[in-house]
Fold DEBR0S2_18426g1_1.
Amino acid sequence: MTALDTATYHINYQKYTFYDEYKRIQPNIKTTQPQLTKFWSVSLDPKYTSEILRFIKQKFSADDYLKQIKRIKKVMDDSKHFHLEILICPVQHMESHVLIDMLKKWLTTPSDFELTLTTASVPLNKPYSKELCMSWSQLYWPLVWKGNPMVQEIRESYKNFKRGTVERYLKEACNLSNSSIASYPIATIIVDPIKDQVMASSVDKRSGEDPMIHSVMSCINQIADNERRRRKKLGDHKETNNYLCLNYDVYTTHEPCTMCAMALLHSRIGRLFFIKPSSVTGAIGENSGCKYMIHLSCTLNWKYEAFQYVGDRLQPSKLDSSLSV
């Protein structure tokens, strides 16, 4: 595989771009650092391996980020006997005494066996090279190398990327922006990609009286209002969809701020497309605003893809240079 793969895919792996116009927003390989979190681990004799693995499978969900982490680590003592260190769950998920009580009830260890929990620092993000994987495994906790995840992720993303559809909705957002007379000519469109249907659209309406009416927030509110009316009309009060924007695509002229990026995350969107970066308040780009890249945070319970249009054919209305998005 070369940096530029155009035989089958219109992908530039060094720039993370599709068709030289759409940049997938993800951490730079050269600057990637481990995002560590504390896990509870327990030390056990190898004969309890099957029991503890059944316990973990039944009591804790198999989160995607655990796929690159080895659950079990062999540790040899001074007398050349080895025991197993087993990762149980993130420390924040459960207090130690509760977990110990659960383990005592599950394991067939002797009644006088003293279960002791320790903490281990574990990388939640995937290393992008075999050398980095080996380094993190030695420094923190053993990891599994299954090839460069960046390449795998980008190719899977590309397979679901419909260039014509993306460009059509970004053009629509630009038209909304260019026709707006608001101080902040920012426009957003939310689309159900399965039905190829616009679910909401709005331009920015923030003002000194209400600075919270960003176009993204207005769109989410529209979808919430429509769902409320639907349930009232049909007498459907069941929580059939707890997440109003589940796997929807969001097209917006400007990079969302922290408030909007978090609202999109809580709404469980699938993908975000934007044109102009927001260097001061943006929450998506690696060098924007808080530099947090909210859409990819390992400490939050959802992730979504984000793309920036980096071509020159689509241009939304320009913002006053004195305004910060």
Remarks:
- The chain has two domains: 36-124, 162-309.
- The radius of gyration is 24 Å.
- The chain is about 25% helix and 20% strand.
- The mean pLDDT is 89.
